[in-house]
Amino acid sequence: GSTILLDGNVTYDLDTKYSFDKSLTIKSGYSFGQGGAIINLNTNFNILAGANVGSVIFDGVILTSTDTLAVAKYVFNVDQSSTVGEISFKNCKISNLRGVCRFQNSTGTVGKYTIDNCIVTNIGNYGVFNVDNANWTAGDVLFKSSTIYRCVVFMASKSTRPTKSVTVEDCTLNEFVAKAGTWYKWVNEVTNGITMKNTIVGHGYDSASGGTDYTIIGYSGLATTSWTITNTYSTSDFAYVPLNTKTISGFPSFAYTKTVNDLWKSPATGDFNIKDLTFAGIKDSGDPRWRK
Predict the structure, then answer these.
(1) Are 252 and 232 in contact (CB under 8 A)?
(2) Using one digit for the tens of pLDDT, what is the confidence trace for 19-32?
(3) SS3 for 145?
(4) What's this model's pTM, rounded to 2 decimal places?
(5) Nearest to 100 by CA among 77, 66, 118
(6) DSSP 69
(7) What is the H or E stretch that residue 260 is in?
(8) Which of 7, 78, 103, 225 could form a disulfide with 136 if both were Cys (CB 3.0 to 4.6 A apart)?
(9) Helix, strand, or coil here: 61?
């Protein structure tokens, strides 16, 4: 239950893997710069084998690495049998990682996983949330008031047990899954359904220089999972892979007839301030930091 307060003006190098065995909050103090304390992930965090951890919360920190190709580093790469009540990222900037949180090997449960008021970019093929093992179980997954862009994978679960719920609310998504990739990639189901609310969705991610293939697949698995889509927009350059039937029921609520470059100031550089003042969702859709 302790809080570790980091100096907001300091970069902390994580050179030795640390395995959580108790609840902790890691929080940035005030700083003269933007973003607060930096945790440079030369290795990843883990959970101690057999531990029952109530919560791990990162608040106001920058979690990044020098792995600009996003092929090697993680925040969490959990490979021990354990139980975690909650893993939460609040007010964070997360970048240059193969995956943000990956549960692999062994057996375990994560009760709640939260991305809240965060900016997440340059994430590789293990995505922003990934249950990469049949024997791990996830509860409630929440993405709220966050911007996700330039990611190869968004969310995925190989668990043979259903996830409890998935909610994406007040978010901005652009280049959030690689071309021909799957937006919600599940093996099993989401018991209480997948909800998308007050969200703006741009096009897929073609990482090739000058590439313009933005087509994606809506989902896999999820045969009986319900979808609740409200006040959620897609831009005109959002597109599914041709002839693929895995399109999300009810998405979008509203189709914006122009492109990502018409809607946002500079999506390629992560500036998602809305520049089209005629956009109907300008006051109530997308990550609130970009609204007018």
Answers:
(1) yes
(2) 999 999 999 998 88
(3) coil
(4) 0.97
(5) 77
(6) T
(7) helix 260-263
(8) 103
(9) coil
